[in-house]
Amino acid sequence: MSKSVLVSASLLFLALALSACTEPGVCLEQSQAACRCPGGVPGVSRCSSGTWGACQCVLSTDVEWPDVPDLEPELDTEDAEETTLLAYRYVRISDLSMTVTSPSGGADMDALLLDTGETTYFADQVEYFRHGGGYQGAELEAILGPPDAFAAYPDVSRCNIERGFLSLGGLGGEVIIRLAGPLKAGDTLTLLEVGNCNYGSGIAISDEYQVTISHSPSLGGNWFMLGNGRGPESSFIIPPLP
Predict the structure, then answer these.
(1) What torsion, rounded to 10 degrees, do the Cα atoms 221, 227, 233, 236 define?
(2) Are 208 and 197 in contact (CB under 8 A)?
(3) Looking at per-residue confidence, does 221 or 4 come out higher?
(4) Interatomic CA distance for residues 228 and 235, integer angstroms
């Protein structure tokens, strides 16, 4: 062998465990390479007759061997933060209805639901809001959490306008919300707008709006188009995202 294993005088025993963790391949005679054995124990593989041998795992701690690189490095804090920042969690709803001046005019948004197949997430924070008619007294929290006006959801035939909704105020109005969980390909994003539903005294007017998503709430960021919707319910299957 090209390099001997050094054992201290106080070493009582040296146990070698054989493992097939090193892939076979052509090698130079008498060469050796670092490898990993089951459980992540470092070891050494030696070349014999042009083929790498099994990984020899030394079970003593008083032994000198070549440095063995980590096979599965853990995600550091910076990488984890970057992954979180790149998650698509922001939904931008832009009112496409005609311009109005009424505080309750335009698209009246009740709630957003993200169905992952395993759980349902709702909006948990409003990042930005602009009322198309300039009204400043909007109740932003009305769009957060589970449906309010559509309390009997998934039944959207009836709506209770007294329970609350967020009016975008017509063309030019928009809101950016953050979802409690990330949007992923295959998930279903559903938006509820108080329109085309029976509110007791008649049928609510349905207004059109546009839906885009992003991994940042910045108005000047990159927004991915999902499409247009209108009340009472519009759903979008999330496609593969850039």
Answers:
(1) -90
(2) no
(3) 221
(4) 10
